[in-house]
Design brief:
Elements: H1 10-18, E1 23-24, H2 25-35, H3 44-57, E2 60-62, E3 73-76, H4 78-102
Antiparallel strand pairs: 1-3, 2-3
Length: 107
């Protein structure tokens, strides 16, 4: 299942990681920026487009809660977690192959 999806974009990967805990859109944007040490910065339009796609795929879902807070939160699903684990395996293979071939070559 996960293998047929291909590589995740860095932004999607960080969105999914962010949603291991329920979070609203602005929180996701801030968390992605923090996790990537400022390399990945998303605007609201990009983020909400990605959220819509991830909900359609079933990788994340709205988080139901009882508070009156108007900010809509999302959380990762089991399928989304499987996608993150598949991406981790893919990235580990890339690193392993790179270290075996390029080793400790300095630029």
């Amino acid at each position: 299942m996960a293998e047929s999806q291909g590589a995740l974009t860095e932004a999607v990967y960080y969105i999914l990681l962010s949603l291991f805990e329920p979070m609203h859109g602005y929180g996701i944007m801030q968390n992605v920026k923090t996790l990537s040490r400022g390399r990945v910065s998303m605007g609201a339009g990009t983020l909400y487009g990605a959220i819509s796609t991830l909900v359609e795929k079933g990788w994340i879902e709205p988080y139901e809660r009882t508070s009156d807070d108007r900010k809509k939160e999302y959380v990762i699903t089991g399928i989304g977690k499987a996608m993150v684990l598949a991406e981790l395996e893919r990235l580990e293979e890339l690193i392993l192959n790179g270290r075996q071939i390029a080793g400790g070559v300095n630029k």
